[in-house]
Every structure is written in C-alpha cells, then in structure tokens.
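Sequence design from tokenized structure. All designs in this work follow the same two-part layout: the structure record, then the generated sequence. An example of the structure record is given first.
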C-alpha cells in the first residue's frame, strides 16, 4: 500500500498484512488522518485494537466516546 504522505511520512510503502505495521497505520490515521481516511477504516478493527494503541489521551478519549455511541455497540 502506498500511504498518503500526511499520514505516513517516514515510509514509502506499508505491508498492512503485517500486524505491527497495520496497528501503526491505524494509529497514524486516528491521530493524523482526515475525515475521509478515518471513514475508510474498519470500525470493528479500530474497536478491537484501540486498547493496544499508544494514542494521545485526547484522541483515545474521543475514540472511546465515539465507539460507545456507535449503534452497532448497542445491546439487543
């Protein structure tokens, strides 16, 4: 994958099949991505890996609130 330069400026290519690179990319998108970049993420994947990501506290809080409001997270 050829990442957008404003998200990933230190590498030319990413191997998103590598779990470490994938988590790192998610971190980059959640902290530096634009609305369209964030919208392209798999929300369930974000929910799964969020506890593993070393995000700034304000970014983590925003995502925890956003995922808590997600209708897919509601009890049946």
């Amino acid at each position: 994958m050829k990442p957008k330069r404003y998200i990933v400026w230190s590498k030319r290519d990413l191997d998103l099949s590598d779990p470490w690179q994938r988590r790192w990319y998610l971190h980059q998108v959640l902290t530096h991505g634009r609305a369209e970049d964030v919208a392209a993420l798999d929300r369930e994947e974000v929910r799964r890996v969020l506890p593993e990501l070393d995000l700034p506290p304000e970014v983590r809080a925003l995502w925890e609130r956003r995922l808590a409001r997600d209708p897919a997270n509601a009890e049946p």
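The chain has one domain: 19-73. We note this feature because it recurs in several other targets discussed in the main text.
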